[in-house]
């Protein structure tokens, strides 16, 4: 040790100490950041190029009478979308945060055109397209956000691209979940005529009370509405639920309390469902 602490060896010794301390400090910092910083959530981070995608989808969205009856300012809509969640706690979203965005880009859908779904997104979308009907994802705001994720951090003007809250593991009041709940509620409560819902008959419980359809859409249908349910099972799989099953009876009970008329058809394969109309 005496030789190490003389002349040039003293410099090397000190340099080595600083290097080791830097590595240890960096490791501790990364560990703390990983567990309490931007990467602390269990969900996917914000979609890359989020703002660019929103702008492009808005610019190219087909302006049809049933889906958007007013002129739209895509730049203003994008700014309203960003201001709803940027610089805010990603676990403290409220419906009020999206009020301005909804006011700017709300959609009008005629009676008898709405299609709801639960665990059947692609099938419902295909059915709606063939029949000239409308799913939530076909509306302006639904199409802007479809397949994207987003969240911010308090005090930061940037999106968190590392992680966002998962509604089961972190918090239900995150900005992604609340966004779709707000849109789903308005989509259901403004419905008129016959509303259709496509459910997965391959599941033991085709109706799930904890799904967005179960906890948001079904309870917000107005008494003037008729709900037509289709239980469709996957190709090669036998149906596991039916219109007389306990889950569908629960759905019928919820609708009955709201004086919503209910019609149900089951035992349909995907091909039969898409080809029978």
Q: What does the model show?
A:
The chain is an alpha/beta fold and 277 residues long. It has one domain (43-275): ADP Ribosyl Cyclase, Chain A, domain 1 (Up-down Bundle). Helices cover 42% and strands 12% of the residues. It contains 10 helices and 6 strands, in the order H-E-H-H-H-E-H-H-E-H-E-H-E-H-E-H. A 4-stranded parallel beta sheet has the order 2-4-5-6, with helices on both faces.
List keywords for this structure.
alpha/beta, ADP Ribosyl Cyclase, Chain A, domain 1, 42% helix, globular, transferase activity, ADP-ribosyl cyclase/cyclic ADP-ribose hydrolase 1, glycoprotein, phosphorus-oxygen lyase activity, transferase
Secondary structure elements and pairings:
Elements: H1 7-36, E1 43-44, H2 50-60, H3 74-85, H4 99-105, E2 115-118, H5 121-131, H6 140-145, E3 163-164, H7 175-189, E4 194-200, H8 212-217, E5 226-233, H9 246-257, E6 261-269, H10 270-275
Parallel strand pairs: 2-4, 4-5, 5-6
Antiparallel strand pairs: 1-3
């Amino acid at each position: 040790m005496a030789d190490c602490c003389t002349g040039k060896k003293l410099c090397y010794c000190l340099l080595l100490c600083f290097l080791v301390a830097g590595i240890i400090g960096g490791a501790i910092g990364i560990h703390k950041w990983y567990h309490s910083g931007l990467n602390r959530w269990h969900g996917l981070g914000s979609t890359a190029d989020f703002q660019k995608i929103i702008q492009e989808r808005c610019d190219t969205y087909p302006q049809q009478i049933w889906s958007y009856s007013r002129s739209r300012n895509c730049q203003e809509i994008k700014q309203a979308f960003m201001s709803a969640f940027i610089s805010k706690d990603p676990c403290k979203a409220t419906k009020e945060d999206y009020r301005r965005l909804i006011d700017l880009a709300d959609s009008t859908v005629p009676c008898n055109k709405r299609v709801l779904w639960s665990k059947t997104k692609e099938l419902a979308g295909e059915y709606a397209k063939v029949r000239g009907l409308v799913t939530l994802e076909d509306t302006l705001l639904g199409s802007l956000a479809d397949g994207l994720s987003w969240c911010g951090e308090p005090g930061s003007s940037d999106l968190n691209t590392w992680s966002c809250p998962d509604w089961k593991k972190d918090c239900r009041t995150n900005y992604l979940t609340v966004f779709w709940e707000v849109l789903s509620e308005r989509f259901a409560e403004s419905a008129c005529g016959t509303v259709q819902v496509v459910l997965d008959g391959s599941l033991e419980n085709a109706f799930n009370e904890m799904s967005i359809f179960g906890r948001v859409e079904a309870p917000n249908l107005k008494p003037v509405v008729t709900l037509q349910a289709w239980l469709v099972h996957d190709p090669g799989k036998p149906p596991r639920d039916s219109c007389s099953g306990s889950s569908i009876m629960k759905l019928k009970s919820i609708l009955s309390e709201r004086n919503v008329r209910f019609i149900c058809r089951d035992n349909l394969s995907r091909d039969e469902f898409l080809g029978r109309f």
